[in-house]
Amino acid sequence: MTIAFPKPDEAVLARRKEIVEGLGRLVAPEALIVSEDERRAFETDGLTSYRQMPLAVVLPSTTEEVSAIMRFCHANGVKVVPRGAGTSLCGGAIPQEDAIVLGVAKMNRVIDVSFENRTARVQSGITNLGISQAVAYEGFFYAPDPSSQLACTIAGNIAMNSGGAHCLKYGVTTNNLMGVTLVLLDGTVVEIGGEHLDAAGYDILGLVCGSEGQLGVVTEAVVRILRAAEGARPALFGFERVEDAGACVAAIIGAGIIPVALEYMDKPAIQICEAFAHAGYPLDVEAMLIVEVEGSDQEIDDMLRRIVAIAEPFRPKTMKVSQSEAESAAIWKGRKSAFGATGRVADYICMDGTIPTGQLPYVLNRIDEIVKSYGLGVANVFHAGDGNLHPLVMFNTNVPGEMEKAEKAGEDILKLCVEVGGCLTGEHGVGIEKRDLMTHQFNATDLEQQMRVRGVFDPGWLLNPAKVFPLEGRFAA
Amino acid sequence: MTVHTPRDEQDASIVIREAADKGTLLNIAGNGTKAAMGRPNQTDASISSTAMSGITLYEPAELVISARAGTPVLEVMRVLAAKGQELPFEPMDYRSLLGTRGDPTIGAVAAMNISGPRRIMAGAARDSLIGVRFVNGRGEVVKSGGRVMKNVTGLDLVKLMAGSWGTLGFLTEVTFKVLPKQERMATLVIRGLDDNQAIEALSMALGSPFDVTGAAHIPDRDRRGGSTLIRLEGFRVSVDYRMNEMKRLMKRFRFMDILEGVGAEALWQSVRDATILTDQGNRAIWRVSTVPAKGPDLAAHVAQALDAQWFYDWGGGLVWISTPLDGDAGASILREATRTHGGHATLVRAPAEVRSTLDVFEPQSDAVMTLSRGIKASLDPAGILNPGRMYAGI
């Protein structure tokens, strides 16, 4: 437990009753959560080792209510922690004792779908999968697919610029977002972008996407929807050496093939996931690739033939093309349940750094050395096409000191990612988890410039203020 | 007027810091091929990236290229092509439209977020731009993003720099995600459709699972028909298959043929560069991004009031319109059209005296303008970088 929270503002804590009453005048009684028991459901997110009890929780139903709440908090100097479904893996939605949680989960309607324009306008509390389900009857889907897509909201996806397993072809949230309704801290409602491409003026949409709830609260979004491919089929390749798997990835891309997904799992990850999902993963290899291609049957056949030919010189020990829908589903179930399955055998923390893919073998060896030096184990699953790593550093919470060791190992891994030319986080966000590592990726000038831009939206550090920027060195813009 | 040509970002930083101290207003430039775009602004000196040229990193297997801002776009394209790759967003070349010469720079592609027909499939320049280095208005060297395509570390200043027209910083180095150049390109050309039928056909194509990478419609002069273009790219087998399916999907249209090779490439280049409009001499040219299905109605609205010529890209979502230069060059009609149909219009070509009297870019809501002024001040507090090039006051 090494990450600090700012000291709560005593004056705000002392005014709790008055603040709750003020909020009570803005929303229906059932939208305001005050009792300790009920607030407890909001004290953490996907980073469950950290908890903070919020002052109160409001769950508004309209943009107007969000605006009124923001205006009230702004006028009264109350901090606001925006929240979608609370699945953040970096603590992006963890509250503070002197902050209210503003949850958008009740605002979960689809407002309008246009298949001819290939757009959907939704309220921001809708789940990621909910959007795809709402447009599936015409064969369309919303492309970014984070593993938590069943639960996570588009509001959270926008806040974190979430990715997923298929972003090699379809891009991440920022590439699929066309507009937002954004409520600023002073309650102003701003429309940015819309059903057309490329907003006029500065790309405020691009700035808001990935800003981790520090610039405003998104209440509606216009997203791009796509017609799904006719079919998709994954293939498995098992290798005896990590280097061969890495070289195979480079060779596939070098041959001009961009598979829709290109996933890597190492031996510990294969074993953990196979035990859980019975996906038919090879257990006797050091590294495995899941390569998925899309299209009609004949396109898929052609593409997989090319990929098999590319893989052969790297002497894969296993090559298996999925033969049925059920087999494909099992292959993906194994990969998508990697975090959950690991959770069954150990406590873990999941890192999310990205590296240049050419550094893959070196980085994987170093990760192994780092984790071993702390006496811990690691399972690696990641998006190999884009170098977004997910080392799961495993530990036992019941052994005193192990979690701290795991956190240290995680830190060392992220520093390594930056050292080889990558970054601290590819898709999970900075949150509180990586906040204090930001100085490894950015120098003081870089961070100051970001804080100055942040200050345009929230000069007094009221919006999700414990996150992203190291507590030291902050300034009022 | 003094023209500074810094050799590296340290040099640039010195120039800009001094300008900030003295309040010297700087024109931000590359080779000046697009100097005649945007609002004409008054500056005291110019800072150009032309002495900062060269590719600094290219890893084909990682699909990433970095270049100093002054590197010619054509050089970047040549280097990529040698490894069978390309800039996915197909950047437009404005030289024919503007009648300029010289080498457009890669920095301008980022600074102006310049994309082409493939934008509908592969995203805009801003979607492929994964890292920038720039000097802000304080003279500080700032970096954002990096060389990896998945990166959510910190605020995304990369997006802010893309399309900011040099008003927020002087770009020194840009990094793009690239993609393999496709093995084969084929275009289905449907003839004889009016605007509404054409956009409906393009919507159908874009809503199909066949990965359309270009969707344009060029109306005939008499407006009763035109050429509707649907482009497919990929491996040979795949393009064959998808083209067959596409023809089946479009079977209710009678006049179809398939265009490939040099002719097809030239045609798409004329769509990309909007040269379809340039034979019209001394007229204003507008670029309108709107809701695709509303494209035809928007064009009709403009044509009712003005002697307009136009064509569509992006499945109807991008309408290039030429209007007479008289009066306000059509500005009030265009602004009314975007207000009622959604989207935004930019006056791409008009003489400086016209551009100086009206809004070149779509006017923004008060709330967005307030944010934009704040953003400008946070990067360029002295207001010395390309002041007024996009909007008055930023």
What do these coordinates show?
- The complex is a heterodimer of chains A (477) and B (394).
- Chain A has 477 residues and is of the alpha+beta class.
- Chain A has helices at 10-14, 16-24, 36-39, 63-76, 128-135, 154-160, 167-170, 173-176, 204-208, 242-254, 267-277, 297-311, 325-336, 338-345, 360-373, 402-419, 438-441, 444-457; strands at residues 32-33, 56-58, 79-83, 99-103, 110-114, 119-123, 140-141, 177-183, 189-193, 217-224, 226-227, 232-239, 261-266, 287-294, 318-321, 347-350, 377-383, 388-395.
- Chain A is globular.
- Helices cover 35% and strands 20% of the residues of chain A.
- Chain A contains 18 helices and 18 strands.
- Among the domains of chain A are: 110-227, Uridine Diphospho-n-acetylenolpyruvylglucosamine Reductase, domain 3 (2-Layer Sandwich), CATH 3.30.465; 232-338, Alpha-Beta Plaits, CATH 3.30.70.2190; 346-435, Alpha-Beta Plaits (2-Layer Sandwich).
- In chain A, the strands form 4 sheets. A 7-stranded antiparallel beta sheet of chain A has the order 15-12-14-13-17-18-16, sandwiched between helices.
- Chain A starts with 9 loop residues before the first helix and ends in a 20-residue tail after the last helix.
- Chain B is an alpha+beta fold and 394 residues long.
- Chain B folds into 2 domains: 2-180, Uridine Diphospho-n-acetylenolpyruvylglucosamine Reductase, domain 3 (2-Layer Sandwich); 184-355, 3-Layer(aba) Sandwich (Vanillyl-alcohol Oxidase, Chain A, domain 3).
- Chain B has a 5-stranded antiparallel beta sheet.
- In chain B, strand 7 and strand 8 form a beta hairpin.
- In chain B, helix 11 (295-305) packs antiparallel against helix 12.
- The longest helix of chain B has 14 residues, at 9-22.
- The two termini of chain B are 22 Å apart.
- The model of chain B has no long low-confidence stretch (mean pLDDT 96).
- At the A-B interface, strand 9, helix 9, helix 10, helix 12 and helix 18 of A face strand 8, helix 7, strand 10, helix 8 and helix 9 of B.
